[in-house]
């Protein structure tokens, strides 16, 4: 009685299984916008919760994100200023309660 | 917001410190002002550019001065609110937790708690120093944070703030299965239409009432930017069933946002000293499920825009300098409890709306403001629905039309929740709007007249046509699709039979055979002129028919676009005028009575003695009609230079006399061809057989 050789089918099946399990991660893989980074206190010191270094301090976005990004430039945007960069006591003499043309500076 | 320099405590409504949590209602998860302001700017630095926490720590006495940034503040304990990058860039950001921390005065810790990178225990508000417990599973073994930042931000992050604000003001929402939007369903994110630049300024539209960074107005992608150019594979609509003037007069949103499905804020009541928004009628609360249709507002571009007409009442004090100063919330809050139990309706909107309630509130305000050093004179005013109310010398309520700055109409744009094409206004034909009692003609909102008067309720026709009612009626007659076919048919039949039966066929036949030969037998020039007049008239009548009945099927068959049909109509109209002039010059000698005899003119004008003068009258009439059509037609070519009222009158005249002209020509053809079959051969071949 001749024995059936399943080796070829097994190989194909193995390849398919491998493709199935690897395809999903490959298709979903993406580049992170930010690489792993240290959090930093407002004085710029590293926060390391694993080692316990400054682990009781809140992080500062100015120091943490500002390491790579221009925090001062970004915060000039109107979402952050909302008129604060133009606020002054005599902004509108006809409506003295209006201090800026943004949302910060109105009654 | 208080000024930086103040002379007495009553001047200070909100310092920049108090402002952070102003308006917050933790029980309802409603954030204060600082909840949606992402930090940085006025939440980090004072008006002199000093960082609040450091400056106050170095100058603790300043909290006891009347400085608008530091008065009674705790910046040195709360810390400042730096720009929270994760608020926008971290999917799943916990906005509620951020606001919880702000309410606890844990300003410095709010970003940490909101991001979920750690937990915060304790509250500055309870005079504690908050503790931090970081979530170690988010960190590598070397202590570096590994976190997925979204670039550009996801819409879910935007709607943390904008969803709330837009829902209240406009009723529209995003990522909402009830209040859907075709763009949202196609997977578009906020940043597709509102991209940002490295400075984090985002392309924006032009909200009616907002004055934030007006220099960036209309920098975003509008409907036409994508749908006229196919940007992002946007379908390019033909709008072949829509009259072109509709596209000129209406913003896309008018038809494409026929309804909104969440209750918006219909009004705002400040009488209690708190800002109370009340929902669209029929809605249990703001955001509840209800279908309502926008009102419409004429924008600066002259187009109509869908809006949520918002009614806000306000209290002011008319001071010695003639300025109506808005009262602070706490100033109204001092007066309201005095009269609260005596109000006629405790549940209505707004709370103060009857004359007796207004009298009570104004009297209470007059008493509570008496010692207020903010004002040299105490004259409280109540502003509501285009009127203002104040007390006279006898302490009686005086009602006046509101001419103050308060009277500006509040109408918030509606620009999201775009409906699928099959649900837009007009998808079922013109009757979606041009019908009795359709929403669009019943919902025109009040407009403020240029003289500064308050809002007026005006009818839709008046909005376009001014204040002359007869123009409104004519316009309605001209546009009313239900009546138009019958009216036009009646006019055509009337003119046709008047002309046809008043011409004595037997007599005319006899006259033709008995006429002098120089009249019967046209010269070659006359024949060509007549041919071109008929040809051009036919083109004008055909294109005019398409315009009058908006027959887009014929338009599709014969023309590439409506614009090309219009241009053809203009061009042929001018040609018709020119060829008619040639015709007049050629016929001048043949019909001297028509052109020179006053009695003939009179007979033509009043249709007296029509029968005996039928040929002369016909020619004279066509000359007059050509003149009227030509003048009104040329003026309509330049319609952009006239106001809407003038254009409607011109269009009505043009259309009305066009109908008469067509009827007359039909009658002319019948009398000359059908009734007198030999006449064509006589005229053209110079033979009567």
From TrEMBL, chain B:
InterPro entries: Di-haem_cyt_TM, Multihaem_cyt_sf, Multiheme_Cytochr_ET
Transmembrane segments: 485-503, 524-547, 567-587, 617-638, 650-674
Annotated protein name in UniProt: Uncharacterized protein
Taxonomic path: Bacteria, Pseudomonadati, Thermodesulfobacteriota, Desulfobacteria, Desulfobacterales
BP-aspect Gene Ontology terms: respiratory electron transport chain
Keywords: Membrane, Signal, Transmembrane, Transmembrane helix
Gene source species: Desulfonema ishimotonii
Keyword Transferase in record: no
Gene Ontology CC terms, in alphabetical order: membrane
């Amino acid at each position: 009685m001749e024995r059936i050789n399943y080796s070829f089918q097994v190989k194909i099946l193995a390849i398919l299984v491998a493709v199935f399990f690897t395809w999903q991660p490959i298709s979903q893989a993406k580049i992170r916008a930010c690489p792993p980074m240290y959090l930093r206190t407002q004085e710029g010191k590293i926060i390391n919760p694993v080692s316990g270094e400054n682990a009781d301090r809140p992080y500062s976005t100015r120091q943490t994100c500002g390491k790579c990004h221009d925090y001062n430039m970004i915060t000039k945007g109107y979402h952050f200023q909302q008129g604060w960069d133009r606020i002054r006591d005599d902004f509108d003499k006809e409506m003295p309660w209006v201090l800026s043309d943004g949302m910060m500076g109105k009654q | 917001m208080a000024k930086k320099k103040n002379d007495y405590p009553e001047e200070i409504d909100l310092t920049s410190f108090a402002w952070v949590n102003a308006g917050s209602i933790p029980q309802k998860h409603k954030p204060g002002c600082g909840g949606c302001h992402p930090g940085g700017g006025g939440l980090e630095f004072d008006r002199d550019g000093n960082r609040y926490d450091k400056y106050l720590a170095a100058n603790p006495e300043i909290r006891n001065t009347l400085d608008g940034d530091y008065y009674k503040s705790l910046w040195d304990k709360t810390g400042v609110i730096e720009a929270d990058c994760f608020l926008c860039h971290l999917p799943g950001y916990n906005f509620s937790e951020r606001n919880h921390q702000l309410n606890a005065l844990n300003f410095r810790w709010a970003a940490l708690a909101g991001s979920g990178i750690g937990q915060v225990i304790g509250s500055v508000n309870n005079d504690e120093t908050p503790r931090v417990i970081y979530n170690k599973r988010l960190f590598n073994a070397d202590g570096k944070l590994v976190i997925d930042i979204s670039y550009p931000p996801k819409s879910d992050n935007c709607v943390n703030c904008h969803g709330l604000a837009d829902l209240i003001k406009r009723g529209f929402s995003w990522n909402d299965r009830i209040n859907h939007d075709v763009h949202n369903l196609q997977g578009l994110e906020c940043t597709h239409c509102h991209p940002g630049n490295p400075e984090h300024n985002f392309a924006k539209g032009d909200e009616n009432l907002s004055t934030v960074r007006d220099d960036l107005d209309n920098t975003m992608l509008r409907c036409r930017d994508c749908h006229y150019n196919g940007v992002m594979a946007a379908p390019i609509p033909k709008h072949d069933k829509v009259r072109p003037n509709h596209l000129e007069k209406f913003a896309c949103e008018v038809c494409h946002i026929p309804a909104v499905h969440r209750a918006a804020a219909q009004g705002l009541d400040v009488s209690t000293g708190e800002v109370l928004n009340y929902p669209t009628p029929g809605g249990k609360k703001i955001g509840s499920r209800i279908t309502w249709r926008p009102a419409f507002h004429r924008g600066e571009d002259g187009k109509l825009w869908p809006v949520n007409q918002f009614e806000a009442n306000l209290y002011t004090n008319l001071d010695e300098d003639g300025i109506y100063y808005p009262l602070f919330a706490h100033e109204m809050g001092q007066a309201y409890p005095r009269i609260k139990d005596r109000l006629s309706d405790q549940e209505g909107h707004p709370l103060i709306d009857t004359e007796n309630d207004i009298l009570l509130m104004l009297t209470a305000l007059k008493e509570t403001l008496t010692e207020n050093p903010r004002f040299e004179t105490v004259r409280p005013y109540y502003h509501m629905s285009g009127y203002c109310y104040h007390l006279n010398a006898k302490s009686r309520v005086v009602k006046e039309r509101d001419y103050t700055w308060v009277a500006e109409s509040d109408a918030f744009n509606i620009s999201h929740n775009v409906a699928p094409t099959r649900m837009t206004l007009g998808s079922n034909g013109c009757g979606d709007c041009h019908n009795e009692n359709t929403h669009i003609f019943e919902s025109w909102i009040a407009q403020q007249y240029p003289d500064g008067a308050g809002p007026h309720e005006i009818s839709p026709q008046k909005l376009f046509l001014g204040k002359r009612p007869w123009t409104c009626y004519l316009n309605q007659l001209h546009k009313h699709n239900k009546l138009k076919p019958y009216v036009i048919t009646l006019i055509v039949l009337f003119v046709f039979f008047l002309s046809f039966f008043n011409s004595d066929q037997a007599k005319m036949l006899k006259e033709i055979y008995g006429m002098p030969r120089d009249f019967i037998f046209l010269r070659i020039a006359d024949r060509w002129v007549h041919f071109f007049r008929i040809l051009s008239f036919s083109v004008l009548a055909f294109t005019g028919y398409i315009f009058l009945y908006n027959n887009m099927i014929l338009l599709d068959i014969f023309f590439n676009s409506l614009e090309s049909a219009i241009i053809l109509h203009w061009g042929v109209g001018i040609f018709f005028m020119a060829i008619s002039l040639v015709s007049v010059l050629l016929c001048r000698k043949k019909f001297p009575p028509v052109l020179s005899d006053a009695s003939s003119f009179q007979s033509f004008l009043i249709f007296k003695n029509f029968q005996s003068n039928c040929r002369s009258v016909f020619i004279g009439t066509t000359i007059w009609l050509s003149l009227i059509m030509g003048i009104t037609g040329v003026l309509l070519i330049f319609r952009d230079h006239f106001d809407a009222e003038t254009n409607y009158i011109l269009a009505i005249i043009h259309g009305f006399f066009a109908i008469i002209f067509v009827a007359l020509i039909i009658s002319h053809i019948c009398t000359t061809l059908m009734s007198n079959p030999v006449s064509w051969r006589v005229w053209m071949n110079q033979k009567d057989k």
